[in-house]
Design brief:
Oligomer: single chain
Largest sheet: 7 strands, antiparallel
CATH superfamily: Electron Transport, Fmn-binding Protein, Chain A
Number of helices: 3
CATH class: Mainly Beta
Shape: globular
Structural class: alpha+beta
Strand order of the largest sheet: 2-1-5-6-7-4-3
Distance between the termini: 19 Å
Number of strands: 7
Length: about 120
């Protein structure tokens, strides 16, 4: 199953881990990423701590825990590659469940290269 199919069809909880340039770590519950292609994902981010961290340190990790028995999911190791602030672009990529939130100037579409993918447990 490719990235787009996986994240569109698998229910679960996501957690994004970031760190600032001094190594101070933050973790936050995050929506499923938007799969751009097999090597690129994007998140719609507010101007909060996770966003501030990736502006000073482009490395991040995303853990996705599937809503299923046992411990199934993925760990994605990421590097920020670019971002967009175009409201129309952000609105066009949003999922139906995200449409009830108004797109404002504090939102950024942040693209990451997927450097490595690991299973949730093992390896």
């Amino acid at each position: 199953m490719n990235q787009s199919d996986y994240f569109e069809n698998t229910e679960g909880t996501g957690i994004l881990a970031t760190a600032d340039s001094n190594g101070n770590v933050d973790v936050a519950i995050y929506a499923k990423p938007h799969a751009i292609d097999e090597n690129t994902i994007a998140f719609i981010m507010n101007k909060r701590l996770s966003y501030q961290n990736i502006t000073s340190n482009p490395k991040a990790a995303y853990l996705f825990l599937e809503d299923s028995p046992g411990y199934k999911g993925k760990r994605l190791y990421l590097t920020k590659i670019k971002e967009e602030t175009d409201k129309e672009l952000i609105d066009s990529i949003r999922r139906k469940s995200e449409k009830h939130h108004e797109v404002d100037s504090n939102k950024h579409l942040v693209y990451f290269s997927v450097d490595k993918i690991r299973a949730l447990v093992g390896e």
